[in-house]
Design a protein that fits this description.
Mean pLDDT: 88
Number of domains: 2
Structural class: alpha+beta
Strand content: 15-25%
Largest sheet: 5 strands, mixed, barrel
Radius of gyration: 23 Å
Number of helices: 9
Shape: globular
Number of strands: 12
Strand order of the largest sheet: 1-2-3-5-4
Order of helices and strands: HHEEEEHHEEHHEEHEHEHEE
Helix content: 25-40%
């Protein structure tokens, strides 16, 4: 059983099942769940049980988006109470048994509840080396190991703007007035000018370095082409210099402790980072700004354009290196009406 257990987990792709919770080292695998022995539960009810949910057969409905089974549209914006544990948002489970590359769908899943911790602990107890695939390769929390998946609808994935966001949603908030805000605003000015003018040469120079490394030339060319085309998302920016500017920082996560706060303070003393967005005045007045950094990518119908800006610590030559990230939205997210 040890060899089979390790082989199953080592070979886990995003769409393959986790070893059932009731299967202990040396035992036969737990029987598959059927609709008859799987009472209907909501995602929230499963999460409320915590580790006591592990091993239960349930039927649960939700929005299948990649690795995740989410309760609704707002679930994408709820913040974790435990670091990297999406269950701790109260609105999402990990999902196995469905191809993560499949189109988003509202599904009814029947299967056994497991947790990344329980799977990991079982493998260690069996004397094997844990290597988890799918959701548990990246995250912690509860998962549904679906034996059957039925699509029952199509989710309407809509961006939630500041205007309609409930309190507590999203991880961004406007940065308070001060040196950091002023520094980021000043750094954004030449980028905004290049975007408004569709200045390909300037954009290549500004966007060349991303996340600490030079962007591949073909990727850089593609990015600049997308930002300078006639129908570019940059067309939303007014050419007369009247764009509204907002500077965002990250809200303190709900899981932050004193050690996290000290580390953040040390990082902020040496570097400056944030997300700066520009929009027409009417969009700013309507509070259409993003509430989460996941919505900071550019898209044709988006009423703003943002850049993630990172200004590094002083170099030996006394200079600070500024890096810009202006990236496309890669999800199918509808703009609110």
């Amino acid at each position: 059983m040890r060899t089979r257990l390790a082989a199953v987990l080592m070979g886990l792709a995003a769409s393959v099942a986790v070893v059932p919770a009731a299967a202990e080292a040396g035992d036969e695998a737990a029987p598959a769940c059927s609709a008859a022995d799987s009472p209907a539960m909501t995602i929230g009810e499963v999460i409320a049980l915590g580790e006591a949910a592990v091993g239960r057969c349930v039927t649960v409905e939700g929005w299948a988006l990649g690795f995740f089974l989410q309760a609704d549209n707002e679930a994408r914006y709820r913040q974790e109470r435990i670091y990297n544990d999406y269950t701790s948002t109260g609105a999402a489970l990990g999902l196995y048994g469905r191809d993560r590359g499949a189109a988003p769908a509202i599904i009814r899943a029947t299967g056994r509840i497991d947790s990344c911790k329980a799977v990991y602990d079982r493998i260690v107890a069996a004397g094997d080396i844990p290597f988890l695939g799918g959701f548990c390769h990246y995250h912690y929390g509860l998962v549904v190991n679906a034996a059957t998946v039925t699509e029952i609808g199509k989710p309407d994935v809509v961006r939630i703007p500041a205007r309609t966001a409930s309190a507590g949603l999203g991880n961004l908030s406007p940065m308070a007035p001060g040196e950091a805000r002023d520094t980021l605003g000043a750094a954004f000015a030449p980028l905004l000018d290049a975007l408004v003018k569709r200045d390909a040469a300037a954009l290549k120079s500004l966007l060349r370095n991303e996340a600490g490394a030079a962007m591949a030339e073909d990727r850089l060319a593609s990015r600049v082409a997308a930002l300078t085309a006639a129908d570019s998302p940059a067309a939303v920016l007014p050419a007369d210099g009247t764009a509204a500017i907002e500077v965002f920082g990250w809200r303190e996560p709900l899981w932050a402790d004193d050690q996290t706060r000290v580390g953040n303070a040390e990082a902020m003393a040496n570097t400056t980072s944030g997300i700066v967005c520009a929009a027409p005045q009417r969009a700013a007045a309507a509070r259409l700004w993003p509430i989460d950094d996941a919505d900071a990518g550019f898209a044709r119908d988006r009423p703003y354009l943002c850049a993630r800006i990172f200004i590094g610590a002083l170099s030996e030559g006394g200079e600070r290196i500024t890096q810009y990230m202006v990236y496309p939205e890669e999800r199918s997210v509808r703009e609110p009406a």
